[in-house]
Description:
One of its GO terms (molecular function) is hydrolase activity. The structure is a single chain. This protein has 153 residues and is α+β, with helices and mostly antiparallel strands. It is 15% helix and 37% strand. The chain has helices at residues 18-23, 54-70; strands spanning 26-31, 34-40, 77-87, 94-104, 108-116, 122-133. A six-stranded antiparallel sheet has the order 1-2-4-5-6-3.
Amino acid sequence: MTDSDDSINLRSYTDQIPFARHLGFEITKFEGGESELRYTAKPEHLNTFDVTHGGAVMTMLDIAMAAAARSETPEIGVVTIEMKTTFMAPSVGPLIARGSLLHRTATMGFTEAKIYDAQERVCAHATGTFKYVKRRLPTGPASANAMRPPSTD
């Protein structure tokens, strides 16, 4: 796989997701139906109990599952259709999310992900369904293409 602007690989995956960059996610595995992300919450990403905010946890799980779904065919995008999350323990300190593609059809990917703390305790678990979609054309001020979200039809 090349490092061109159109390729998706380990180094470029989270760089293409502005919210993942903002939170500071680092992807360390993106292959064979599996993914791994690392993240340590910043003070502004904590809730009133000083643990990682549930929204950041859910985002990490969502991206881990999407990466697992895309890892076998990175040139095809995915959109989240459904996600169920269970919070099992406080997510504190450095976190690792591991995602897996459980089953794939021509148009759908069925996934799961878990978040582990530094002691390898499971903090959160999610399952998700993703629809495979064609990547959209470049958009923005320098592009002739209008901003259109990918179709989920």
